[in-house]
Write a structure and sequence with these properties.
Protein name (chain A): Dimethylamine monooxygenase subunit DmmA-like C-terminal domain-containing protein
CATH architecture of the largest domain in chain A: 3-Layer(aba) Sandwich
Distance between the termini of chain B: 28 Å
CATH class of the largest domain in chain B: Alpha Beta
Organism (chain A): Brevibacillus invocatus
Domain Dimethylamine monooxygenase subunit DmmA-like C-terminal (chain A): 97-139
Radius of gyration of chain A: 18 Å
Distance between the termini of chain A: 53 Å
CATH superfamily of the largest domain in chain B: Nucleotide-binding domain of ferredoxin-NADP reductase (FNR) module
Structural class of chain A: alpha/beta
InterPro entries (chain A): DmmA-like_C (IPR048037)
Strand order of the largest sheet of chain A: 6-5-9-8-7
Low-confidence stretches of chain A: none
Structural class of chain B: alpha/beta
Radius of gyration of chain B: 23 Å
Chains: A alpha/beta, B alpha/beta, C alpha+beta
CATH class of the largest domain in chain A: Alpha Beta
Strand content of chain A: 35-45%
Number of domains of chain B: 3
Largest sheet of chain B: 6 strands, antiparallel
Number of strands of chain A: 9
Strand order of the largest sheet of chain B: 4-3-6-1-2-5
Organism (chain C): Brevibacillus invocatus
Mean pLDDT of chain B: 94
Order of helices and strands of chain A: EHHEHEHEEEEEE
Oligomer: heterotrimer
CATH architecture of the largest domain in chain B: 3-Layer(aba) Sandwich
Chain lengths: 144, 319, 315
């Protein structure tokens, strides 16, 4: 697809990491619009209106800290952006959610491969099987 | 191979001088199978030249299942299909049709649907628009025809979809021409759909891509009659087995391989599951399967042994 | 040969087993099958649905129209195939379904969820032994949109809900080789109304348990450690899923039914040809497939047991 313009949404973390990307986009000679976002702005109508009024041919970059990424991505998808029309970059500290297969509650981990479920105590091996709907990795139980 | 439905023609309506609409009803008087918007049926026509298979879109709303309606344009260069429909079919004529099939469905996630139709290409959009109205979703139609008289479904469109319908009449000097650049100013999440002659479809597809539509937001349907299956005998050289076997005209390649004791894989035997795929080293393949994409077919390096054959008289397989 | 063995859907057609699209056209085109285990399995299923509703039933909000199509298809198949056991009468949209095996009658308005005590898929699943899965087909992909799953072979409906076909199968080692996962997905996406397909899937289970859910693996999985060559005949089961695929006409979605069958190795061994073939399949089975099918801890014990049975017959 031929891009017509760029829209870049970033928070404070994203801003400090955006230098190279902004140079690249500026060199493209296509119009570039940059907007700051915060967790709080997610709930305000200006951001929704901004996304919903975009034309076809707009390519969206999200450059935000991890907690903001998924809600922002979902809002963009609701506005009509498909995977081919946006790029998502999560920055900063990132914890993985692990779905306990035994009790269905969510645990957090940075990078462990084996954890203990905080709710039911089962030992879980953290797999690479990921659910976009639940935003979590599957934690398998094992037989002792 | 495919299951068929026995129907008869209940009514024929002359839509335009060259387009007839046929109302088909089940011979057993039962309801016909439901269908999804954009579906078509294959009609099996008993002509003097043998059975012809021709595809036609179902033009009524999907909620209606006591009859089917198709519209056939008489082509000047008819290879028999449209001529048969126009000159040999009358009210009461019986025939067999396939179950509805859908190769042109509405996008689920599209925020807005824009349809571009040229001539008889209007047909798949009729069931689609009815469905979108029922679901309360937004769309617009752009339809190019020669003139009002030659514009099939003109009344239906004016009555039911007036506000969403833009007509372009090429023989009318006061009417504008249907052009792709209307696709530029559409909201993000718009999907575009094309149906008409191949040149029109290609032109609009290219334009859509250049305006920034991702490939998955571009949909089109081209009606091409299926290629008749050539049943000539041919030879097959098996590279690894160092053998050559012959395939009879009424024998599938798979049957010939198995009869010769070659352990060639298979499952469905009707060209659908893909299990019987073998590597082709040389020779031109006549593909009759429903597995490979156009690109894969053109690469000529794989074939389904259960249904596909040789175009000429020899193939070399890696088996 | 016992009645159970003669009815058993034997899954192998060769001495070696690899992942493939082993689907064939389904004839007759019936989605469900009532077997002598009906009462036992329906009781178990309903108790699981009552005690573990979120594990056994999940659906995305937009699936109601497709669920009605499934309900219609299944109820018609029950009535037309087993008319003495299931009746279905319709007066316009007012439907009455009677299950004479369970002595239950349900009246409802077709298309109106408020007239049923459960969603249409959840309702109809309570009358058949099959697990019922709804795959939505949209925007060029296939998604797990809804399902009633009481007898899973170690997977979680709740976790997988909403995933696409490739994502669902990503944990299976080797399944994506040669793009088999995409090829099978593409095959399913080309399914047509009026032409359903069927395939058989198999695994070995330690212990008899239809509801081998991922959620309770740490409980029933323990049996794998208790298999010996001596007890394998009675403790290890061949588990076969007969899977049927139907295109739903109006929603363009796909109904995937799974009927699970279990038979002990001892019972299966009564058929010499089955015994020999299962033995060859297991001996030759690559480790990555054996592991995924859950038999890593006791495959050797099973092979020893089968060897014993083979020699016994010869002797």
């Amino acid at each position: 697809m031929q891009k017509q313009r760029y829209l870049l949404l970033m928070d404070e973390t994203g801003e400090s990491a955006s230098h190279d990307l902004r140079n690249e986009l500026a060199a493209s000679s296509l119009p570039v619009e940059v907007h700051p976002v915060t967790l709080e702005s997610l709930h305000r109508s200006e951001l929704t209106a901004l996304l919903f009024r975009q034309w076809i041919g707009t390519y969206l970059y999200l450059l935000v800290s991890w907690p903001l990424l998924e809600p922002l991505r979902q809002l963009a998808e609701d506005a009509g952006f498909s995977e081919q029309e946006m790029e998502c970059h999560g920055l900063g500290p990132h914890t993985r959610q692990v779905f306990c297969s035994a009790c269905q509650k969510m645990n957090q981990t940075e990078d462990e491969t084996v954890i203990s479920c905080h709710f039911c105590g089962e030992e879980l091996s953290v797999s690479e099987h990921y659910s976009k709907r639940l935003q979590a990795f599957l934690g398998y139980t094992s037989i002792r | 191979m495919q299951p068929k439905i026995h129907v008869f023609v209940k009514q024929i309506i002359q839509e335009t001088p060259s387009v007839k609409r046929f109302v088909l009803v089940s011979k057993e008087g039962a309801d016909l199978p439901a269908f999804s918007a954009g579906s078509h049926v294959t009609t099996f026509l008993n002509t003097a030249a043998g059975t012809l298979e021709r595809h036609y879109s179902l033009v009524q709303a999907p909620a209606i299942t006591d009859h089917y309606e198709i519209a056939v344009q008489l082509h000047a260069q008819s290879q028999g299909g449209s001529a048969y429909w126009h000159h040999q079919v009358s009210e009461g004529t019986e025939l067999f049709i396939s179950y509805p099939k859908n190769h042109f469905s509405l996008s689920f996630r599209a925020k807005h649907h824009v349809f571009y139709a040229a001539g008889i290409g209007i047909t798949p959009f009729l069931s689609m628009m009815a469905e979108l109205v029922a679901q309360g979703r937004s769309f617009e139609l752009h339809y190019a025809a020669k003139s009002r008289e030659m514009c099939a479904f003109y009344e239906t469109l004016q009555k039911t979809y007036r506000d969403s319908c833009h007509l372009y009449l090429s023989a009318d000097p006061d009417s504008s021409r249907m052009r792709p650049d209307g696709m530029r100013q559409q909201r993000i999440g718009t999907h575009v759909y094309f149906c008409g002659p191949e040149t029109m479809v290609n032109q609009f597809q290219e334009a859509a891509r250049s305006y920034g539509y991702p490939q998955q937001s571009i949909h089109f349907e081209l009606f091409a009659p299926p290629a008749p299956m050539l049943r000539e005998p041919f030879l097959v050289e098996l590279w690894q087995s160092k053998r050559t076997i012959s395939v009879g005209s009424d024998q599938s390649l798979l049957a010939a391989l198995l009869a010769a004791g070659i352990k060639s894989p298979y499952s469905c035997r009707v060209g659908r599951c893909g299990t019987c795929a073998v590597e082709v080293l040389s020779g031109e393949v006549a593909h009759y399967d429903s597995v490979l994409s156009e690109k894969e077919r053109a690469a000529q390096d794989v074939m389904m042994t259960c249904v596909s054959r040789a175009v000429h008289n020899k193939l070399v397989l890696s088996l | 040969m016992s009645d159970q063995l003669s009815r058993f859907p034997y899954p192998f057609n060769s001495d070696t087993y690899r992942y493939s699209n082993n689907s064939v056209l389904l004839d007759p085109p019936i989605a469900i099958e009532v077997t002598p285990e009906y009462l036992e399995e329906m009781t178990l299923k309903r108790s699981l649905l009552a005690n573990h509703p979120n594990r056994c039933y999940q659906s995305l909000p937009h699936t109601i129209p497709a669920q009605w199509e499934i309900a219609s298809l299944v109820l018609h198949h029950l009535h037309e195939t087993y008319p003495e056991d299931f009746s279905l009468t319709k007066e316009g949209n007012s439907w009455t379904f009677s299950n004479h095996k369970l002595n239950e009658t349900q009246q409802f308005v077709f298309g109106d969820v408020s007239t049923l005590p459960w969603e249409p898929l959840d309702f109809v699943g309570r009358h058949v032994q099959e697990d019922l899965i709804l795959m939505g087909q949209r925007d060029g992909d296939l998604f797990l949109d809804a399902g009633q799953l009481c007898f899973p072979a170690n997977w979680s409906l709740e976790f997988n809900l909403g995933m696409n076909f490739v994502e669902i199968h990503s944990p299976i080692p080797g399944f994506a080789n040669g793009n088999l996962d995409e090829k099978i997905r593409n095959f399913i996406m080309k399914l047509e109304v009026g032409q359903p397909w069927v395939r058989r899937n198999w695994s070995l289970n330690a212990g008899k348990r239809l509801d081998a859910s991922l959620e309770t693996f740490h409980q029933w999985g323990q049996m794998r450690k208790q298999v010996t060559a001596e007890n394998a005949g009675e403790t290890v089961y061949l588990r076969v899923e007969v899977q049927k695929l139907f295109r739903l006409p109006r929603s363009h979605a796909v109904l995937f039914t799974i009927h699970s069958y279990l038979i002990t190795l001892h019972e299966l061994a009564q058929n010499r040809a089955y015994l020999e073939q299962l033995y060859h399949v297991l001996v030759e089975l690559p480790a990555f497939i054996a592991e995924y099918k859950g038999m890593k801890l006791y495959k050797q014990q099973v092979i020893q047991y089968l060897e014993y049975e083979l020699q016994k017959e010869r002797g």
